[in-house]
Each structure stands twice: as structure tokens, then as C-alpha cells.
Amino acid sequence: AKQQGRGIVCFFSAEMDRATQDRRELERDLRAALDSGEITLAYQPVLSASTGQITSVEALARWHHPVRGPIPPDLFISIAEEGGLIAQLGKRILRIACEEAMDWPEHIKVAVNISPMQVHAGDLFKVVRHILTITGLSPRRLQLEVTEGLFLRDIDHTFRELDQLRTLGIQILMDDFGVGYSSLSYFERFRFDKVKIDQSFVRQMLASQASSAIIQAVVGLGTKLGMGVVAEGVETAEQMAALVEAGCTHLQGYLFSKPLRSAEIKACLLANARF
Ligand code: C2E
Ligand code: CA
Ligand code: CA
Ligand code: CA
Predict the structure, then answer these.
(1) N or C: which end of the chain has fewer CB within 10 A?
(2) What Å distances lie between residue 76 and 66, 180, 221, 259, CA to CA?
(3) Average pLDDT for 109-127
């Protein structure tokens, strides 16, 4: 048994070395990819629940590795965070999103995901202001999506960063609400423009009374506090009907559209598509 135990340990550490090795390789390749145009953005429409019109589009990072093909964003974003590359990658993403949004109708906003480390770095205000200036995008058209992970550190400082960012005239959205370290007291200190209910609640709402009650509670809170409530991960007409009934103000999900390439979203927006 001892023999076997050691074998398992060896097996695990070999596996771990390989995983570490793999991440190191990806980190090296990501460093190179930052200058080579391998990082692109896909865009997923967000609709008004009352009119069915597209009101904004979420930018989602894509990395097509020359040998390995597409790498999931959750993976390469976390590699970028660990390897100290997130500031540079984040700037690149913001810049592409603002540039591409300049080609869309003016009433369409663009939402960009922001990693907690980008906020904690302390220069996000300057970065955003600079990118708005060089691209010419109106601040009214930019939304930043932040997650609860942001508030694990330096909470007062973090809220001051958000206050300052908002003086630019941009919107701040709370993403993936309800699954991380959610605290209702965040809303006491900061009024987000919108709250995005995590898609796990949407997925379970028709089967789980708890999920559906949580969605209703978030909608009630959002409505009282003047925050829009976005349901993401909407995949079926039944979910849509329940979410509209619950009072969600905006909807996003495969039911309406998968994330689209830059040229596709542009064509879709210029055709004034409605769902
Ligand atoms: P997220 O911000 O919560 O983005 C939503 C994810 O759900 C996206 O996955 C989207 O493609 C997927 N999705 C949208 N509708 C549906 C649906 O109806 N059903 C299902 N099953 N999934 C749906 P994606 O593109 O793989 O991104 C995963 C995560 O990676 C994002 O979650 C976000 O946390 C992170 N991420 C992506 N792009 C960026 C970025 O530019 N910067 C940062 N910091 N993080 C990013
Ligand atoms: Ca998001
Ligand atoms: Ca989300
Ligand atoms: Ca997520």
C-alpha cells in the first residue's frame, strides 16, 4: 500500500509539473500574443427587456493560439493576472473595444470586463481617460463590468477608485452578482448603474425555488435603488418569460445571440436587429 501511495504522489506531482509547465508556456506565448494581433474581441448583445432592442454589447476577449487554437478567456485572463500581464492586456482590450464601438450606432454602449487587479493598480482612471481621448468614444457609451472579487481588498480605496472612474461619465456594472462574496452593503456605499445576476441563478431558476427567489430579491433591490438588473445566460424562451415577469430590465444569452465577431456585430447593429 505504501508503494502504491508513493506511486500516486509521484503521479500527482508529475501532473502538477506538467500543468505548471503548461501555464508557463502559455504565459510566454501570451506575452508575445500581446503584440501580434492574436487577441481579439467577440461581442454579445444585451437587450432591453421591454423593447427587445439591443442597448449594449459586452466585449469578451478571445485568444486564438497559433498552435493550440482558441484558449478559454477564464484561463488566459488568470494567467495574465499571475504573470503580471493583465495591465497591458486590459489596456489592449479596452482600446480595441472603444475603437470598434466607434463604428456602431451612437445609442449602443460597449461593456468591458475589468479584472480586480486593473482597479487595484491605481491607474485605471488615467488609462480609461486616455483611451476615451485617443479613440474619441463618448464616455456615456462605455460601461465597465467589475466583480465582487474586487472588494476582497482595500475596500474603501476601491470604492474611491470607482467614484473617480464614474466622474468620467462612464457606467459601472456589478457582474456575476450573488456567487462570490456578495454583500448587500456594497449598495449602501456605491450605486452601480446595473447589476448582472450570475447566470447560475438563471440556469436553475425554473427548477429551483431558491434561485428564482434570489432573482426576484435582486430585481426588487435594484428597482428600489435605481439600478438596472441584467439577466445573463438566458438560453430558453421559458427562462426569458420568467425573467421578464420577475422584472429584469435587460437580457443577454444564447437565446438571442452568441458572442459575435467584430464584423458580424457591426452588421447586426447597423441592420438595427431586434430580438
Ligand atoms: P462573464 O463576464 O460572466 O461573461 C459571460 C460568459 O458567459 C461568456 O463566456 C459568454 O460567452 C458566456 N455566455 C453568454 N451567454 C451565455 C448563455 O446563454 N449560456 C451560456 N452557457 N454561456 C453564455 P466567455 O466569453 O467564455 O468568458 C468567460 C469569462 O472570462 C467572462 O465571464 C469573464 O469573467 C472572463 N472574461 C472574458 N473576457 C474578458 C476580458 O476582456 N477581461 C476580463 N478581465 N475578463 C474577461
Ligand atoms: Ca461580464
Ligand atoms: Ca457575468
Ligand atoms: Ca462569469
Answers:
(1) N
(2) 14, 20, 34, 18
(3) 96
In this structure, the residue with its CA closest to atom 12 of ligand 1 is 233
Residues with CB under 5 A from ligand 4 (ion): 176
What confidence score (pLDDT) does residue 81 get?
Answer: 96
Q: What mean pLDDT is predicted for residues 137-152?
A: 95
Calculate the average pLDDT of the chain: 93
CA distances to 47, 119, 128, 142, 218 from 249, rounded to whole Å, are 9, 27, 27, 18, 12
pLDDT tens by residue, 43-82: 999 999 999 999 999 999 999 999 999 999 999 999 999 9
CA of 11 to the centre of ligand 1 (A): 33
Residue 12 has pLDDT above 70, yes or no: no
CA of 196 to the centre of ligand 2 (A): 8
Task: For strands 250-251 and 39-48, give the pairing.
Answer: antiparallel
pLDDT of the residue at 37: 85
CB of 268 closer than 8 Å to CB of 46: no
Ramachandran region, residue 234 (left: φ > 0; alpha: ψ -120 to 50; beta: rest): beta
Q: How far is the CA of 145 from the centre of ligand 4 (A)?
A: 11
C-alpha cell at 19: 500543468
Ligand nearest the Cα atom of residue 173: 2
Measure 61 CA to ligand 1 centroid, in angstroms.
8
pLDDT of residue 15: 75
Q: What is the pLDDT of residue 182?
A: 82
- Is residue 69 within 8 Å of 45, Cβ to Cβ? no
Which residue is associated with the grid cell 491607474?
123
| Substitution site in 60, 94, 239 for ligand 1 pocket (most atoms within 8 Å of beta carbon) | 60
Q: Is 0.90 exceeded by the ipTM?
A: yes
Is the CB–ligand 1 distance for residue 97 below 6 Å?
Answer: no
